[in-house]
Design brief:
With 227 residues, this protein is mainly beta. The protein is built from three helices and 17 strands. Pfam families: Por_Secre_tail. Keywords: Signal.
C-alpha cells in the first residue's frame, strides 16, 4: 500500500522533481549549471523555484547571480527572473518568459515546450535568442512535449517494469535515436544509442527521468524508480 501511494505521488509530480537544472545564456551567465530548488507553492498552486546558494554563484561579468522561476498570474505566464543583487527578489529583472506552455500544470515548461522568450530589453540580446534545445538545457521538474496536458496522460509509448531492478523496456517507439537518464537533480547519468531494453542495474536506488529522442527529434520523458 505504501508503494502504491509513493508511485501516485511521483507520477502526480508532488514528490519527484524538486529541482530544475538550467544551463544557457553563456555570454551573461557563463557555461555552467544553475540548480533551482522548489521553495514553495503560490496561491495559484504553481511551484516556485530559486537557485542555490541564495547568495549567488559566480556569473561572468555580472558578478554573482541568483535566479527564480515563478508563475505570473496577472500576465498568465511563467517567468525566469534574475535578482537585483541582494537575494531578496524585491525588484528582479525579467530574463525570459513563457506564456505558451501547458499552464494547467504546477511546473514550468521546459526549453522545448511553448516558447521561452528572451527579454532583450534587459539582456540587450546577449542571451542568443529565445531558449531552445540548441542553446540551453533545462531538465528536472519541467514540462516536456510527451506530457501533453497532464503528466499522468497515458499513451502507447510506455516503459516497464516500474519500479525496476535491472532491465527497463521501452515499447511504442520504432524510430528511437538516443536514450538519456537523469537523476532527481537533473544530472545526466547515462547516455547511449536507443535500445528497447536498457540495463539500469548500475544505478543506485532512487528516482530518475528517462528521456528518449527519436530520429525526427521528438522527445519523450518518463519517470521511474530504481529499486
Amino acid at each position: 500500500m505504501k508503494l502504491f501511494y509513493l508511485l501516485s505521488l511521483i507520477f502526480g509530480s508532488s514528490v519527484f522533481g524538486q529541482t530544475i537544472t538550467f544551463n544557457g545564456c553563456h555570454n551573461l551567465f557563463d557555461n555552467q549549471n544553475f540548480i533551482f530548488n522548489k521553495t514553495g507553492v503560490d496561491a495559484n498552486n504553481k511551484n516556485i523555484y530559486i537557485t542555490t546558494p541564495i547568495d549567488g554563484q559566480p556569473c561572468g561579468g555580472l558578478g554573482t547571480c541568483e535566479f527564480k522561476i515563478q508563475w505570473n498570474n496577472t500576465l498568465t505566464r511563467w517567468e525566469f527572473l534574475a535578482d537585483e543583487g541582494n537575494g531578496t527578489f524585491t525588484s528582479p529583472y525579467l530574463m525570459y518568459y513563457n506564456s505558451t506552455g501547458t499552464n494547467t500544470l504546477s511546473i514550468p515548461p521546459g526549453n522545448n515546450v511553448g516558447l521561452w522568450v528572451e527579454n532583450t530589453s534587459i539582456t540587450t540580446g546577449q542571451c542568443g535568442g529565445n531558449l531552445s534545445i540548441g542553446n540551453s538545457t533545462m531538465t528536472g521538474d519541467v514540462q516536456s512535449p510527451s506530457l501533453g496536458v497532464s503528466e499522468i496522460s497515458k499513451s502507447k509509448i510506455q516503459i516497464f517494469p516500474n519500479p525496476v531492478s535491472e532491465i527497463i523496456r521501452i515499447s511504442g517507439i520504432e524510430n528511437g535515436q538516443t536514450v538519456q537518464i537523469f537523476d532527481a537533480n537533473g544530472r545526466l547519468i547515462l547516455s547511449e544509442a536507443f535500445d528497447s531494453k536498457i540495463n539500469v542495474s548500475q544505478l543506485t536506488s532512487g528516482m530518475y527521468v528517462m528521456k528518449v529522442t527519436t530520429k525526427d527529434l521528438q522527445h519523450h520523458e518518463f519517470k521511474f524508480i530504481k529499486k
